[in-house]
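Whiteboard transcription, Tuesday session. T.W. wrote the structure tokens on the left side:
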């Protein structure tokens, strides 16, 4: 073997190794995403914070003997309640099984994530890799409906290149197999390709079994998914057929016409976005839109909650986003008891006759406690869906439910003691607080000594003298020693009820368990003592912040070529060495071949700003792999900032650049505008609306589109470049544009000049990115 052949073999081996590492990294990223979603579901269901929920997920996987990612996929599938979940119910495992064959739920959920793109070819590649290849499929074609019965090949896999080019466009009237699925609006199965049928792939090893399925969205057929096998085979099982139907629906999201369907021009009025949702939003009462869920025999087995209007308040306290998508009986399992509400919903769907009733009981579970409310209910059929609205009977019932929630969340138990009859009334939360069964006798306030720590006897004695002898309201804290050995820190507040002569009639009050707050205060006190005694800890935090910052900030001044762009970055730290800031940037090629460009600035300095910078940068990278636009990415990133960080706020400008079209879609969250240099003229881009991240729980962001041409230069920066104490941001931006206008041909030199002549005086970090379009 010659030296050249050895080098070629070594190069081929390196390429294959890198391909394997990339695949493994992608699978690991998908697994982390899936585990993160499952952890979030457990947090939403009350399994503690993220750390506790993650530990609970690991314990469940270990107990079930399943890999963690497989159990996470099952959790996501069980919570989704969508068409994908329906398709997977009862579906067989992939061929071979074993350790290296993931279950269908994991593969299909990965395929669903891969379909979140407007590139049909990427969707086809994902479906083949994740789902269809294990089913023995040899080729796939995804057609887009152009006009009438005409079809265009939007994506394909497994066909020879020449065959795909020959079938790039199918005019109307040919009656190919794919056109039959469009005109008849139903799926077709062929155990073997008919001899007289015109179809892509004939005589190219794909003339075996074939399935053609309409790709529908919102009642419109946007395309056809054509699945081919190399050899004849028996008909598919019902679970596999449902799985193919779900994949066809996923494909519809990537086909042209999706935007029109999403805008509300759907043929099915029961779909969200249609008239049914408008009707629900127009009601003054809480309302749900329910869609039927069919079993294998085509019978209605349950209903899924397709939409909840803005006035809907879940009796169990769950948010609307958690209820939407759930099965009706999964959300309200007690609804099926005693000839409950689900019977009326089923009858209305079957007969079309509306139903209305007053004082109808609805029982719900709140922390394993059954609560019953009396409702006025209205049910009507709308298309193939059911509109369910209800109203609590009166204000007293609502206030009672609210009081129960407040007591549960605040760990409060109320009591009242009748001084005349000796009767003592406790609510059920108080029995739980004292560790007593509901059948036990309540503890009078005069006998608190027998249940408290001996060292607290003086405080309890003072409390009882004030309350029972002086007839004044009183409060105190003590350590409750329960029969199960647990010690709880309790606050008791009580007031006497007297007649006009001052005789004691009753005592009423409440106990509150503040043990968590107590131990938190103890921990904080210990932390403050440790921080006061050591300066080394602060130095270590600052060093860690510097390391985090340097891990993100560039170490090289040379421009980097990336997807048809030249990108150069300059970073200038604050003059005060201890003021480590939260400025960051990112420029990375995404899985769908677009480029993510971002610059951000986390408020504040030190380890909090640096860790917040890392969280936001990594979160944005992960979210961008979904294929969402910049406005949607910033909306999600705002949720991350508000809920998953501690009082962090930040400004960001985010863009997604398409190298094929040279189009940049961008949005901002409270950040200064980018500057475009086109044909020697510098101008700030018009600002889209967008509040800074973390300010509110939910925010919407505007998105702008910018077409670029070779020779254009785009500058993105943080406010440390222009901010001054003695002038407005507008004046500072005008000064920057005047400096930018004298651009030098070389990108790195241009950035150096801008930093040199920057007139900022706020002693803040500065991050500056230059992007040249090639």
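and on the right, the sequence the group agreed on:
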């Amino acid at each position: 073997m010659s030296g050249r052949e050895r080098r070629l073999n070594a190069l081929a081996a390196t390429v294959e190794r890198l391909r394997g590492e990339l695949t493994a990294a992608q699978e690991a990223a998908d697994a982390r995403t899936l585990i993160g979603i499952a952890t979030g579901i457990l947090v939403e269901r009350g399994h503690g914070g993220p750390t506790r929920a993650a530990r609970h997920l690991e314990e469940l996987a270990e107990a079930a003997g399943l890999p963690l990612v497989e159990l996470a996929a099952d959790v996501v599938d069980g919570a989704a309640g969508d068409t994908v979940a329906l398709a997977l119910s009862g579906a067989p495992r992939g061929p071979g099984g074993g350790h290296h064959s993931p279950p269908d739920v994991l593969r299909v959920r990965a395929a669903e994530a891969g379909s979140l793109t407007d590139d049909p070819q990427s969707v086809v590649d994902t479906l083949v890799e994740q789902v269809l290849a294990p089913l023995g499929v040899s080729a796939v074609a995804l057609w887009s409906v152009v006009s009438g019965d005409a079809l265009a090949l939007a994506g394909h896999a497994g066909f020879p290149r020449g065959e795909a080019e020959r079938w790039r466009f199918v005019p109307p009237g040919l009656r190919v197999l794919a056109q039959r699925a469009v005109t008849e609006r139903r799926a077709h199965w062929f155990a073997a390709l008919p001899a007289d049928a015109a179809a892509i792939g004939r005589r190219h090893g794909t003339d075996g079994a074939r399935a053609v399925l309409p790709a529908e969205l919102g009642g419109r057929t946007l395309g056809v998914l054509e699945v081919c096998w190399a050899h004849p085979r028996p008909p598919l099982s019902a679970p596999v057929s449902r799985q193919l139907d779900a994949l066809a629906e996923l494909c519809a999201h990537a086909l042209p016409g999706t935007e029109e369907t999403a805008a509300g021009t759907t043929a099915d009025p029961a779909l969200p976005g249609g008239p049914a949702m408008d009707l629900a939003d127009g009601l003054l009462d809480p309302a749900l839109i329910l869609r039927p869920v069919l079993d294998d025999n085509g019978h209605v087995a349950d209903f899924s909650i397709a939409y909840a209007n803005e006035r809907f308040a879940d009796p169990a306290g769950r948010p609307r986003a958690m209820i939407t998508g759930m099965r009706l009986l999964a959300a309200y399992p007690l609804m099926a008891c005693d000839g409950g509400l689900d019977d009326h919903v089923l009858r209305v769907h079957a007969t079309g006759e509306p139903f209305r009733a007053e004082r109808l009981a609805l029982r719900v579970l709140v922390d394993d406690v059954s609560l019953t409310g009396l409702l006025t209910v209205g049910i009507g059929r709308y298309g193939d869906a059911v509109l369910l609205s209800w109203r609590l009977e009166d204000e007293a019932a609502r206030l009672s439910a609210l009081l129960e929630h407040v007591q549960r969340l605040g760990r409060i138990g109320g009591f009242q003691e009748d001084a005349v009859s000796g009767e003592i009334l406790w609510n059920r939360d108080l029995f739980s607080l004292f560790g007593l069964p509901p059948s036990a006798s309540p503890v009078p306030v005069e006998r608190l000594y027998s249940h408290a720590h001996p060292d607290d006897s003086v405080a309890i004695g003072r409390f009882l003298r004030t309350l029972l002898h002086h007839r004044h309201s009183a409060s105190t804290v003590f350590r409750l020693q329960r029969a199960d050995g647990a010690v709880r820190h309790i606050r008791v507040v009580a007031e006497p009820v007297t007649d006009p002569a001052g005789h004691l009639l009753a005592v009423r009050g409440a106990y509150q368990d503040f043990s968590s707050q107590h131990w938190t205060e103890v921990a904080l006190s210990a932390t403050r003592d440790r921080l006061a005694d050591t300066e080394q800890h602060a130095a270590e935090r600052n060093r860690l912040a510097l390391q985090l910052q340097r891990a993100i900030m560039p170490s090289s001044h040379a421009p980097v070529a990336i997807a048809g762009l030249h990108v150069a970055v300059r970073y200038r730290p604050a003059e005060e060495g201890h003021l480590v800031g939260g400025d960051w940037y990112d420029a990375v090629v995404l899985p769908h071949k677009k480029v993510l460009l971002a610059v951000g600035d986390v408020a504040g300095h030190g380890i909090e700003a640096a860790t917040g910078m890392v969280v936001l940068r990594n979160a944005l990278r992960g979210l961008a792999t979904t294929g969402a636009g910049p406005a949607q990415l910033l909306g999600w990133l705002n949720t991350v900032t508000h809920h998953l960080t501690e009082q962090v706020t930040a400004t960001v400008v985010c863009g997604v650049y398409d190298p094929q079209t040279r189009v940049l879609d961008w949005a901002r969250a409270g950040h200064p505008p980018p500057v475009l240099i086109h044909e020697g003229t510098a101008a700030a881009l018009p600002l889209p609306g967008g509040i800074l991240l973390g300010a509110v729980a939910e925010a919407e962001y505007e998105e702008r589109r910018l077409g670029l041409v070779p020779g254009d230069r785009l500058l993105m920066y943080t406010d440390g470049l222009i901010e001054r104490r003695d002038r407005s941001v507008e004046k500072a931006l005008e000064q920057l544009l005047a400096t930018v206008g004298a651009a030098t041909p070389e990108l790195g030199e241009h950035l150096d000049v801008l930093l040199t002549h920057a007139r900022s005086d706020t002693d803040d970090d500065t991050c500056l990115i230059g992007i040249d379009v090639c």
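Someone added at the bottom: Residues 3-44 form the longest helix (42 residues).
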